[in-house]
Amino acid sequence: MSKIKNIGVFFGGKSPEHEISIITGQLIISELKKYESYRIIPIYLDKQERFFSDDSLGSLAFFSQDGYEKKLNSLMNYDLSLKESVNKLVFKSTSIFPKKIVIDLAFPAFHGNLGEDGSMQGLFNIFNIPYVGCDAPASAIAMDKILTKIFYQGLGIKTTKFLSYSLVDWNKNSEIILKEVETNLRWPVFVKPPHLGSSIGITKVKKIEDLSNAIEVALHYDTKVIVEESVENLMDITCAVIGHKEPIASLIQESSCEEMFSYDDKYLDEGGAQLGRADSKIFIPARLDEEISEEIRATSKKIFTALGCSGISRFDFLYNKETKEFFANEINPMPGTLYHHLWQKSGIEISDLINLLISSALEKQEEKNKTVFSFSTTVLSKLKNSKLKFNK
After folding, report:
1. Which label site among 37, 101, 239, 360 has the fewest CB atoms less than 10 Å from its CB?
2. 6-131 adopts what CATH topology?
């Protein structure tokens, strides 16, 4: 860890969850600033996909002021410098007298598309720098609710019955799709955009007359839609997992709700469940039988390992209080605010959590550096005697 000096915290992004990412980024920055051995560099990606970096962006006060988007124009924005980026990320300002920023380790705090879905992780991989959290393949699967369910089915883990369609499918065969859902799924159903979190674009549908509009809403935010059976008598439960080779599972968090866990429940009402608000809707540990709790924790670690997760992930389950069945639901490869309140109740303070995440990132990078990415071959030299003809 002594080799790491400059930690870049990446947040914002082109996603409907942009504002939530800002909150997550600010939490991480505020905690990392407590470590004198690191230089913490805020890297903000605005909705126009411009990179900004300035000390003022490391404070929530900047983003909570009215019209902060216009104030960004007074700050320097940066381009990624491809020529100088060898085992580091280097950004150069677009000003007359360029300023250079060098990143040794990336701490992504994105939510949703083009950040949490493996896109930025792929960029970090190209430049071979360590980064916190899941790698690109695990992030891509975790952020796609359709692929996640297919993955669960392959592991033999119970999940709710579902159907999925593309925008092309819907535009061509909407009437057939409506009939297929009515025939094959049990009401009520949930209609979701598969690449979004934070309950954005999600509708609970109880009758066929409302299904078409719900699908249109989901397809407003995505090019695909997933329709899945609802779990009634619902208890929404969550387990977080951290680590790399030897993952650690948290306690189980219970979030009681009538129909679905809404955006307001997660972020707005009294700070939201993402911050572990102390009200009657949140219970840690969950009010479950010990045997079921341990089974959920073991299932969470199984998913974490099988998917190849690292750093931190959050696993959501749907529990039917009447039948005592649980169904694996969604995976968050970089959960909002790191669910530090859940880890605190599990005996790990946020300072230790941050250290564990950085250690996991470095451990993962060390493994990558031992991997051979080249292979000596004579295939090109032998082409001169080949009958294949290319441009001269």
Report:
1. 37
2. Rossmann fold (3.40.50)
At 283-325, the pLDDT tens digits run 999 999 999 999 999 999 999 999 999 999 999 999 999 999 9
Please state the φ and ψ torsions of residue 284, each to the nearest 5 degrees.
-135, 120
Per-residue pLDDT reduced to its tens digit, 181-216: 999 999 999 999 998 866 789 999 999 999 999 999
Q: Are strands 234-243 and 311-320 parallel, antiparallel or unpaired?
A: antiparallel
Looking at CATH, the fold of the domain delimited by 161-229 is given as Dna Ligase; domain 1 (3.30.1490)
Structure tokens at 234: 């619902």
Q: Fold match between 6-131 and 161-229? A: no
Distance, CA of 129 to chain centre: 19
The arrangement of secondary structure in 234-369, i.e. its CATH architecture, is 2-Layer Sandwich (3.30)
Sequence-ordered list of residues with C-beta below 8 angstroms from that of 359, at least 6 positions apart, any chain: 1
* pTM listed for this prediction: 0.88
Q: In degrees to the nearest 10, what's the CA dihedral of 126, 335, 140, 286?
A: 150
Longest CA–CA span in the chain (Å) reads: 77
* Tokens, residue 213: 């509009």
CA nearest to 89, candidates 193, 202, 8, 196: 8
Residue 283 neighbours by CB under 8 Å, 6+ apart:
253, 254, 256
